[in-house]
Write a structure and sequence with these properties.
The chain is an alpha+beta fold and 410 residues long. The chain has eight helices and 18 strands. It folds into three domains: 9-173, no CATH class; 190-224 and 292-406, no CATH class; 229-289. A hairpin with a 2-residue loop joins β17 and β18.
């Protein structure tokens, strides 16, 4: 059974396997393949060109080489495939690649791996955030299986592998690692934190969120990020650049008798990018800091999350049964995350939600430069975060408040 979207599936032989390649990647590689084949045929002089007599002898080798490279890249995207097969009965993991059919593969022993990992892979300017499913070995290494930018699909794949191999799942997609044993109840992931009673927590007057209680439900309204004086640099720096450049170009326009139309276009361009856009962005930031941008309602039926200006206006409803887990990210937990013990699990060691190790004092000095993501909601429809930038104590309070109302028992 093949799935070119890169998802594991159980076949009739009792194995789960995945095939990646083709599909959209093949469509993307088709232009490269066709163009490369055309250039290659020119290089080997099958397709004639009008100025063939004018070209030096080495130009044909360069042309053929370029065509060969483009053909190989396009052909790899069109016909290239990779396979991952997990066979619990044989105790093997088989990973292979080839062109339409497996050509080369590597086998691994399942007995060398002790847990399934769900990792968060931060994106950059070229790639989006993603979630990777991997196996952790006894020596601490990781064997990557698959990945997906959608948390719900990645978690579904991780659960499938965990139940099939009967290995614990370590969800490392957020600050607090959640360990779930496939033989335990599904809601074991909700018992991850040693928590105080919500009634014993006293709200601080400096907290920015607004909380309202009504008939077994709680509504939390979270304002936008604070408007810092440093945000004014967003206006000052572009204005300084505009003044520096304009003070030199305007005299040039006058001395060179540049047409008024050209001057007008240049000035409009400068005003748009160095004045209008920075000022409107700063005003928007200031407005958001004085209004509530996120509203969440939690009760025993589920969670309703609404962002300001969101379509549809009713917001997103996440039923209680569709909530995979709750977590929170604070500046402290971000720092503690870097000190987690990565010692591999020994054979027979019971996996528990052990506390984080002691953090060095010098590392805490970086805390004021670190921002937490707030309360994190993991669901079958995706992963959501609210309250980024709030105080650590306020984020933990909102986490406990949401959890206590969502899993409230009469």
């Amino acid at each position: 059974m093949r799935d070119f979207n890169g998802k594991f599936a159980l076949n009739r032989h009792g194995k789960i396997e995945m095939s990646k390649g083709g599909g959209c990647m093949g469509c993307f590689g088709l232009p490269f393949f066709v163009a490369g084949l055309f250039v290659l045929l020119i290089g080997v002089r099958i397709i004639p060109v009008s100025n063939a007599n004018e070209l030096p002898w080495w130009a044909w080798f360069v042309t053929a080489g370029m065509g060969l490279v483009f053909t190989a890249v396009g052909g790899g995207l069109i016909f290239g495939r990779s396979w991952v097969t997990l066979d619990k009965q044989a105790g093997k993991i088989w990973m292979a690649w080839g062109l339409l059919k497996p050509m080369k593969g590597t086998s691994y022993n399942l007995s060398d791996y002790v847990s399934v990992l769900l990792n968060f892979i931060a994106g950059d300017s070229d790639t989006a955030d993603s979630f990777a499913v991997a196996l952790k070995s006894r020596t601490g290494g990781e064997l990557s299986l698959c990945g997906n930018p959608n948390f719900a699909l990645a978690h579904e794949q991780a659960m499938l592998v965990s139940h099939y191999l009967e290995l614990p799942l370590v969800d490392r997609s957020s600050d607090h690692h959640i360990i779930t044993n496939p033989k335990e109840e599904p809601d074991i992931t909700m018992q991850q934190h040693p928590e105080p009673e919500i009634s014993t927590i006293v709200r601080d007057s400096n907290w920015r969120s607004e909380v309202q209680f009504s008939r077994g439900a709680v509504q939390i309204r979270i304002p936008g990020p604070r408007f810092s004086p440093y945000s004014l640099l967003e206006i000052v720096i572009p204005l300084a650049i505009a003044y520096f450049v304009g003070s030199r170009f305007l005299p040039f326009f006058t001395s060179s008798h540049t047409p008024l139309g050209v001057q007008f276009v240049f000035i409009c361009f400068a005003v748009l990018f160095f004045v209008v856009l920075p000022v409107s962005s700063a005003l928007k930031r200031y407005k958001l800091s004085h209004s509530y941008t996120t509203t969440l309602t939690a009760d025993v039926d589920g969670l309703t999350l609404k962002q300001k200006g969101e379509v549809p206006k009713k917001g997103i409803f996440i039923a209680r049964d569709n909530v995979i887990g709750l977590d929170f990210s604070t500046s402290e937990s971000v720092i503690r995350l870097s000190t987690i013990d990565t010692t591999p699990y020994s054979k027979g060691r019971k996996l528990t939600n052990a506390p984080y190790p002691q953090v060095p004092n010098w590392l805490y000095r970086l805390q004021r430069f670190t921002k937490g993501k707030g309360v994190i909601i993991k669901s079958k429809s995706g992963i959501y975060a609210l309250g980024a930038g709030l105080a650590d104590a306020e984020i933990e309070y909102l986490f406990l408040l949401i959890k206590s109302h969502l899993y409230k028992t009469e």
